[in-house]
């Protein structure tokens, strides 16, 4: 009984703590890491094993010394008496980073590419046991003006190739195992390129600060884009882009006004649908890699949204789960000549048959959610409030 | 401003003042810049760095000048920072987590019934404290695990500061925020003491886990400590070990056990009234007294001490100084056994006397003691004032004052400066955050909740955030735009536009000035575009120029640039008549700057030379009048002969082409009519 009292004392203290975390199973775990987080990325998992991701990388910005750090959320061996604390992310290793971490991408399980505000693109090597992060290669001043360096804003990998873009409006192509730069498109953009994604092996898509999407084909020798798409008359900067994992012509972008656009790049100049998603800059948009009916967006307004598009039949299952969902109407422009047998849910124009549901994934928040990554059932995001949130039971 | 409460302590600035010169300084928010002036010292070796403006701050800094070799003025500017905590990575968590709680607190609506509000405020207060506790735990762990001695002691210092903060906060929570009434007041004070005197638990564990607890040398200390904290059940538990060991005196132990068990504890949720409780408590007290009088425990001095403790005998309690540790523990224990139904207004009398009795007549109380005493006296302003002086950061006072202000406890007090105490302290804290290279974002929300001066502070500070990347600029702009700070928006966009221009990124520069709606700068950049065109014969940044849209109307020159580029596009697409019409309108509507008319007319040449007639008769006349208007204008005096030759050749060529076109157009138009 004596023991019980002691235990009881301790628990009141813990209860005290948990009031602030205030979490049930649907809420993500928060961890404050003493640096504003610009990027979070799951380390890829091997496809053969049916496992959940356990390791993620985080990059910081606006700090005196910025860092790339590797965190683990799985079992840490040291199992406490109370299971909850085990789930908190643990720092495995980290490395100093020159300049703000503008972007992070895993090239493969053991290599991590970072984009820096100093204009450098860096490959870090991560030991298989994740206990050390070392510098493998740096392309100094991959982006720059005649005298000053220019921030590199984004990188994208399709092993072994990687592409970086920057405020200098250049698109640079590298091969991970070659020290020389493979190709530079010098004046790719007159404004800042904010994000880039691979469409096909030789094609990348960039978005810029005057609201344009540009498609680049590296097979072509000319330095002009294969195609330019934009919202006519609108010059709202686009900050992020992601392509549908299975249907390469479907692309989602997010803009400064928080607008989520779904584009069919085959269909010319107008986006297929426009959705008012956030009230401020949308920093990242990601299709779920294995279940692309789900989409995730995060924004400067401090929210992280989970979007699900459903066709009428399985609508009810969704409602039964009792989410606090809000239904957003869907600007439906039926596409003439859409004759694909497999019509993506994102492009199925009939709004009566299709609905888009959005769920808030974070408890109330004030500071910007700068980055998110989603893999299998796990989601990780990082904020300017210096917190990492990990959600390990996504309903996807 | 009131008189200075404390003598300021000198801060030595390494390597400053070697040159026998006066030091100059400049206050910043959080930091102080110190430099050597050209004024020589005249026999003074101590200079007090305090001026009129310096008095407004609580940071008193005395700068010591050291004598040293004489030489030319030192080129260094020293940055003196008072608040080191802001740089601690662990305390950053405190700042970030409490920011969230602060923002949540501001959202508690005015119209919620005050009864519900109180519980909300208490839970906010608990949240703040749990953040402090979490921070303390982490600091403690780091202090233990670090190898670096100085770092360990630094962590140790921070832990002790946080401990004090939490202690004060917790007491304020009990007395002010929860405002516990008689009866529950003592229960809460007991909890407060238990939480902050937790070494009892460690010792109890140590004793109980030893081979023979009853013989452990700390055994009786543990029993008495538990009783002093009013933890009767646990005390009985430990006492039973001894009882089982001594069957001969089991009846005595049994007696003590009954006394401990029967001690009435007030139950604030129960039906019992305070008077009923008081009656029961007095009966119990008399029972204890009887035990003492009939010498029941005379055979065991420990038990006798215990019963004296139960009777609240002051001398016996004071003998337990080491177990009590602090005067406020003594106070609470004393109240527990003498005045369990203490009312809040009576607290201060017992607090003062307990402190005097415990510390003795000659000892001078520490700042912490004074602060706690002020709290027991319900003198909130003194608590806040003393905390501001004693603690090295604004975090605590700003957040506590804000919370107390929400509880409507601070309304009577006005400052001679600024708006009110709450706003003053929150502004100080937020300004400190703003000096940090990374935490400045948190400060924005604090400024937002300072109704009087918050906006001015934010306006002044936000412009000074260094903008390393466009992404950061976008974030700062978002802050400004959300608050309709158009002046700051313009200034930030201009900085970005200028930077882009310096790097020869005309497209980016133009985008930024369009965003700022800065017509003058847009004109300047348009000029650069046109200049580049004249030099190169082709436009750069077509992706931008072709998509200007309505933004083109920002400035005349930009409109011209956009339209002129449109002319080139039409021409390139072989839409000659549209191109011709546009070109002509650029001149007749006076959109084109005069200096470029010759270029425009030259652009018309190939259209005039087409096989097909493109310019109509009327249009040709208009072109001719443009050309003549251009030539009749005053010629620049400094043009060389060669230039003039080229110009006149061009004019001649144009005239010829125009005349030929006119002829063709007359013929063509005449032909169609017939």
Automatic annotation (TrEMBL), chain A:
One Pfam family from the record: WD40
Biological source species: Carassius auratus (Goldfish)
N-terminal signal peptide: none
SMART domains given in the database record: WD40
Cell compartment(s), UniProt: Nucleus
InterPro entries according to UniProt: WD40/YVTN_repeat-like_dom_sf, WD40_repeat_CS, WD40_repeat_dom_sf, WD40_rpt
Coiled coil: none
Intervals holding WD repeats: 231-273, 275-317
Primary location class: nucleus
Keywords, sorted A to Z: Nucleus, Repeat, WD repeat
Gene (name only): nup43
Protein name: Nucleoporin Nup43
One GO cellular component term noted in the UniProt record for this chain: nuclear pore outer ring
PANTHER family in UniProt: NUCLEOPORIN NUP43
Superkingdom classification of source: Eukaryota
UniProtKB/TrEMBL annotation, chain B:
Keyword Kinase: no
Molecular function via GO: structural constituent of nuclear pore
Lineage per the UniProt record: Eukaryota, Metazoa, Chordata, Craniata, Vertebrata
Subunit structure comment from the entry: Component of the nuclear pore complex (NPC).
InterPro entries, per the entry: Nucleoporin_Nup85
GO biological process, one term: protein import into nucleus
Record key words, sorted: Membrane, mRNA transport, Nuclear pore complex, Nucleus, Protein transport, Translocation, Transport
Function: Functions as a component of the nuclear pore complex (NPC).
Protein's gene: LOC113054909
Name of this chain's protein: Nuclear pore complex protein Nup85
Localization in the cell: Nucleus, Nuclear pore complex
Family: Belongs to the nucleoporin Nup85 family.
Origin superkingdom: Eukaryota
């Amino acid at each position: 009984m004596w023991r019980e009292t002691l235990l009881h004392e301790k628990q009141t203290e813990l209860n005290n703590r948990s009031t602030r975390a205030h979490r049930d199973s649907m809420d993500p775990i928060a961890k404050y890491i003493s640096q504003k987080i610009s990027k979070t990325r799951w380390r890829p998992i091997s496809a053969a094993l049916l496992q959940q991701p356990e390791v993620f990388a985080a990059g910081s910005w606006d700090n005196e010394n910025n860092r790339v750090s590797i965190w683990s959320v799985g079992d840490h061996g040291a199992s406490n008496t109370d299971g909850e604390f085990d789930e908190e992310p643990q720092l495995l290793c980290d490395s100093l980073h020159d300049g703000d971490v503008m972007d992070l991408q895993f090239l493969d399980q053991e290599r991590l590419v970072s984009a820096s505000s100093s204009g450098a693109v860096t490959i870090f090597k991560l030991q298989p046991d994740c206990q050390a992060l070392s510098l493998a290669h740096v392309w100094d001043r991959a982006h720059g003006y005649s005298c000053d360096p220019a921030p590199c804003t984004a990188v994208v990998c399709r092993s072994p190739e990687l592409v970086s873009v920057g405020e200098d409006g250049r698109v640079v192509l590298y091969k991970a195992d070659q020290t020389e730069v493979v190709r530079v498109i010098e004046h790719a953009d007159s404004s800042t390129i904010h994000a880039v994604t691979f469409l096909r092996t030789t094609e990348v898509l960039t978005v810029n600060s005057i609201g344009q999407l540009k498609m680049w084909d590296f097979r072509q020798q000319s330095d002009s884009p294969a195609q330019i798409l934009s919202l006519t008359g609108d010059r709202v900067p686009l900050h992020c882009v992601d392509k549908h994992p299975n249907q390469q012509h479907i692309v989602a972008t997010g803009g400064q006004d928080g607008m989520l656009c779904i584009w069919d790049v085959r269909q010319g100049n107008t986006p297929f649908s426009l959705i008012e998603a956030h009230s401020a800059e949308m920093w990242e948009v990601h299709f779920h890699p294995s279940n692309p009916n789900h989409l995730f967006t995060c924004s400067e307004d401090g929210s992280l949204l989970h979007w699900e598009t459903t066709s009428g039949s399985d609508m009810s299952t969704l409602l039964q789960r009792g989410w606090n969902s809000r239904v957003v109407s869907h600007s439906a422009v039926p596409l003439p000549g859409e004759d694909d047998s497999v019509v993506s849910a994102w492009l199925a124009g009939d709004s009566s048959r299709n609905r888009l549901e959005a769920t808030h994934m974070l408890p109330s928040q004030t500071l910007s959610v700068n980055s998110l990554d989603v893999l299998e059932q796990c989601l990780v995001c990082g904020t300017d409030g210096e917190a990492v949130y990990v959600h390990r039971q996504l309903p996807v | 401003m009131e008189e200075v409460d404390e003598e300021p302590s000198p801060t030595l600035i390494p390597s400053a003042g070697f040159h026998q010169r006066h030091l100059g300084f400049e206050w910043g928010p959080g930091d102080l810049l110190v430099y050597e002036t050209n004024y020589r010292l005249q026999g003074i070796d101590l200079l007090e760095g305090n001026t009129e403006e310096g008095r407004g701050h609580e940071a008193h800094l005395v700068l010591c000048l050291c004598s040293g070799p004489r030489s030319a003025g030192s080129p260094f500017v020293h940055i003196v920072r008072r608040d080191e905590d802001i740089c601690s990575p662990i305390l950053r968590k405190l700042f970030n987590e409490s920011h969230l709680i602060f923002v949540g607190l501001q959202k508690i609506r005015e119209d919620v019934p005050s009864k519900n509000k109180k519980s909300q405020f208490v839970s906010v207060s608990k949240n703040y404290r749990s953040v402090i506790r979490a921070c303390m735990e982490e600091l403690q762990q780091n202090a233990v695990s670090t190898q670096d001695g100085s770092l360990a002691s630094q962590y140790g210092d921070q832990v002790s500061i946080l401990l004090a903060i939490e202690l004060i906060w917790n007491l304020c929570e009990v007395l002010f925020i929860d405002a516990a009434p008689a009866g529950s007041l003592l229960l809460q004070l007991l909890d407060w003491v238990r939480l902050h005197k937790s070494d009892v638990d460690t010792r109890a564990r140590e004793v109980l886990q030893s081979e023979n607890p009853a013989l452990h040398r700390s055994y009786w200390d543990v029993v008495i400590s538990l009783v002093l904290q009013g933890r009767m059940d646990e005390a009985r538990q430990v006492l039973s070990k001894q009882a089982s060991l001594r069957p001969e005196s089991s009846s005595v132990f049994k007696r003590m056990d009954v006394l401990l068990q029967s001690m009435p504890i007030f139950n604030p949720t129960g039906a019992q009234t305070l008077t009923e409780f008081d009656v029961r408590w007095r009966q119990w007290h008399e029972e204890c007294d009887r035990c003492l009088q009939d010498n029941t425990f005379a055979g065991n001095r420990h038990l006798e001490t215990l019963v004296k403790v139960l009777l609240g005998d002051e001398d016996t309690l004071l003998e337990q100084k080491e177990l009590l540790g602090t005067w406020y523990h003594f106070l609470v224990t004393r109240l527990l056994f003498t005045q369990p139904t203490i009312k809040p207004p009576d607290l201060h009398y017992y607090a003062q006397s307990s402190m005097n009795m415990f510390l003795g007549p000659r000892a001078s109380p520490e700042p912490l003691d004074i602060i706690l005493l002020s709290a027991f006296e319900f003198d909130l302003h003194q608590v806040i004032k003393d905390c501001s002086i004693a603690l090295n950061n604004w975090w605590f006072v700003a957040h506590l004052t804000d919370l107390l202000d929400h509880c409507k406890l601070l309304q009577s007090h006005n400052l001679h400066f600024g708006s009110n105490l709450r706003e003053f302290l929150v502004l100080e804290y937020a300004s400190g955050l703003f000096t940090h290279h990374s935490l400045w974002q948190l400060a924005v929300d604090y400024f937002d909740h300072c109704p009087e001066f918050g906006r001015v502070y934010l306006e002044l500070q936000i412009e000074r955030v260094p903008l390393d990347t466009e992404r950061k600029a976008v974030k700062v702009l978002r802050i400004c735009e959300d608050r309709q700070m158009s002046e700051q928006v313009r200034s930030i966009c201009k900085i970005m536009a200028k930077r882009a221009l310096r790097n020869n990124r005309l497209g980016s520069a133009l985008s930024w000035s369009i965003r700022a709606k800065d017509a003058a700068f847009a004109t300047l950049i348009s000029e650069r575009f046109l200049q580049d065109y004249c030099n190169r014969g082709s436009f750069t940044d077509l992706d931008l120029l072709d998509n200007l849209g309505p933004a083109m109307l920002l400035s005349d020159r930009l409109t011209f640039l956009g339209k002129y580029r449109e002319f080139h596009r039409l021409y390139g697409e072989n839409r000659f008549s549209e191109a011709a019409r546009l070109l002509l309108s650029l001149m007749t509507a006076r959109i084109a700057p005069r200096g470029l008319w010759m270029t425009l007319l030259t652009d018309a040449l190939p259209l005039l030379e087409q096989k097909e007639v493109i310019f109509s008769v009327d249009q040709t006349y208009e072109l001719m009048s443009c050309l003549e208007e251009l030539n009749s204008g005053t010629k620049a005096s400094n043009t060389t002969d060669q230039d003039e030759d080229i110009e006149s050749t061009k004019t001649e060529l144009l005239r010829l082409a125009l005349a030929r076109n006119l002829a063709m157009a007359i013929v063509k138009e005449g032909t169609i009519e017939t």
